[in-house]
Amino acid sequence: MTSELDELLNMAIYKEIVSQALYIAAQPKTQDPGAQALMKELADEELKHSVWLKNLKDEGTEKRHWHLEKVPELKISEYLTTADTLTGAGLQDTLAFAMKREQQSVEFYSKMMSIMRDRSAKQLCQTLVSEELKHKFRLETLYDEIFYAED
User: Fold this and answer.
1) What is the C-alpha to C-alpha distance for residues 144 and 138, in angstroms, rounded to an integer?
2) Residue 63's CB: how many other CB atoms inside 10 A?
3) pLDDT tens string 74-126
4) Residue 38: which H helix or E strand, with range?
5) Per the structure, how many domains does the chain have?
6) What does the CA dihedral 136, 142, 148, 151 come to, rounded to 10 degrees?
């Protein structure tokens, strides 16, 4: 494994662990049961992502066939403002916060892809962008269903 790819994997694992810790720490800081449940689900997802990345690091990416799919973008989060913290957040604020974090990850991995020289590292960045877009789409779809559903 190249050092560039190894560094990218370490960085991605770190980002997932930080996100997991953020969602765990925020759960007791709100009284909204829906927000607490969503934060727990998000923390669990971040744990799965870090485990997947650790396994990828251990197994290597040389023989990996990356499957990328086109992910629709609702762009709901681009029109929302959010607080910098989840303290006291309700379900709507928690969803908006999580969507913004996913968008930040998309932007991060897109920038990383443009500076990576190693082909495997670029492919991993592209895969991570796709994965973050899928998460963002799922959150935006949920937000749309809950807060914009017609009666």
Assistant:
1) 10
2) 6
3) 999 898 999 889 999 999 999 999 999 999 999 999 999 999 999 889 999 99
4) helix 33-59
5) 1
6) 160
